[in-house]
Amino acid sequence: MTLISHKIALDVMSIRRDFPILEVKMRNNKDLVYLDSAATSQKPNSVLQAEARFYEQVNSGVHRGAHYLAELATDQYETARAKVANFVGAKPEQLVITKNATESLNLLAYAFATQNSSLLLKPGDEILVTEMEHHANLVPWQQVAEKTGAKLRWIPITPAGELDLSNISELINKKTKVISFTHMSNVLGTITPVAQIASLAKSVGAKVFLDACQSVPHMSVDFATLNVDAIVFSAHKMLGPLGVGMLVATEELLDEMPPFLTGGSMIEMVSMDKSTFAKAPKKFEAGTPNAAGIVATAAAVDYLNKIGMNNIQAHEEHLTEYLLAGLAQMPGVQVFAPNLIERGSPVSFAVAGVHPHDVGQVLDDDGIAIRVGHHCAWPLMKKLNVTATSRVSTYLYNEQSEIDAFLTSLERVRSFFGVK
Ligand SMILES: Cc1ncc(COP(=O)(O)O)c(C=O)c1O
Q1: Mind spelling out the 3-state secondary structure of 14-27?
Q2: pLDDT tens column, 336-376
Q3: pTM recorded for the entire structure
Q4: For 173, phi and psi rounded to 5 degrees?
Q5: How many domains in the chain?
Q6: I need a labelling partner for 404 at 20 to 30 A (CA). Which of 126, 177, 184, 258 fits?
Q7: Which residue among 210, 297, 376 has the greatest number of ligand 1 atoms within 8 angstroms of its CB, and so is best to mutate?
């Protein structure tokens, strides 16, 4: 098999030394080839150390208590908030810290189904999503539709894996109150035309939310110029720890939305029969927050900034192009949406007659970790006429030689199952 050789833009060898998990041996004592970063990314030492350091030297409840440690913890929590906000072109007060992107999306959706909320939807209103949403950005909106009588509609996808905008001026109309869609498909890698959809949405006064889970870790995202009302993403996909999610929203939207979770830390005044609430972002941060987690997320942001988001994106583009060229030469292997106009690193494929779980298992024997399954996107699977796909996704620590190892292992799948 002859493949194109690409210049690698990053010093991947030195980056890899920062990720201790990449040294861990897999089944059969194989080296790890981690090609599942769209599910969750690996973490560099600086992130692991930042989290450990917080517990070793700072641990205390934030925004509670006047002792030294409480002040230190609060200070680090707020400094981390400012750094993460700045990373996506937002102000600190625009960033709500949640436990994952799924919670951030539920927080947004809740505002549209809550009595006394100025955003409460009614029968006749419309919510618009797309056919390529992760369940996290679909199920909450189904719930809103069910509770309010609003109608859930969706932008279909073309056979090429792009959003089909041929009917967009009918889909986005005066009844449309919310448009919530993915910036980058976690299955196909499609990057969606945000500017076009956002400007149409704004012309009818609809709120626009972007699921930026797959874009923020892999490309430069600037909330200030996106022309959307909110974006959501998760720390664990961008070198940060598990258990930290982000909601970045305009101050107007944050003011307008009712609190989602209630209790300690989010109040202004409490009496036995009622309470008033703090200003955002505190209004949305009930309970003791994962301070160690956001401090570690700030370390992840430092790491990404040091490498440079444009360099990371260019590196992944090289790897993806190399991967697609390799897959294109394999008989019996079908890539879903191989010719996207704009794409990120997730690549989904099928091997003729072989279930993705079997593909995953053979690769696993070679130490290669890819994702197989429905990727929390059942409607998209249905559209692709499959129940599951195999998915490769890369990040800044992947090398071209790992794509070679993957392709060699996939050849083994083909020969094992006799794929012609
Ligand atoms: C596009 C997209 N949206 C939302 C999510 C949900 O993120 P989390 O599970 O971190 O809440 C994911 C995670 O895979 C995703 O890829």
Answers
A1: HHHCCCHHHHCECH
A2: 999 999 999 999 999 999 999 999 999 999 999 999 999 99
A3: 0.96
A4: -140, -175
A5: 2
A6: 184
A7: 376
Three-state SS at 378 = helix
**In ligand 1, which atom is closest to the CA atom of 236?**
10
Residue of minimum CA distance from atom 12 in ligand 1? 213
- Give residue-wise pLDDT tens across range 220-235: 999 999 999 999 999 9
**CA 118 – CA 207 distance, rounded (Å):** 13
Q: How far is the CA of 266 from the centre of ligand 1 (A)?
A: 26
Question: How far apart are alpha carbons 157 and 395 in whole angstroms?
Answer: 26
* One domain, residues 363 and 287: no
Backbone Cα Rg of the chain: 22
Whether 4 has a pLDDT exceeding 70, the answer reads: no
Please state, as a whole number, how many other Cβ atoms lie within 10 Å of the Cβ of residue 268. Answer: 11
| Contact (CB, 8 A) for 96 and 247 | yes
Token pair of 232 as six digits:
């959501």
> What's the domain range around 369?
12-43+308-416
Distances (CA, A) of 213 to 124, 181, 239, 262, 294: 30, 11, 12, 25, 16
Q: In CATH, what number is assigned to the domain containing residue 29?
A: 3.90.1150.10
Determine which one of 129, 179, 230, 376 is catalytic.
376
pLDDT higher than 90, residue 132:
yes
Is residue 213 flagged as an active site residue? Answer: no
Residues lining ligand 1, judged by CB closer than 6 Å?
100-102, 134, 136-137, 182, 186, 211, 213-214, 234, 245
Q: How far apart are CA 72 and CA 77, in angstroms?
A: 9
Q: Are strands 368-369 and 33-34 parallel, antiparallel or unpaired?
A: parallel
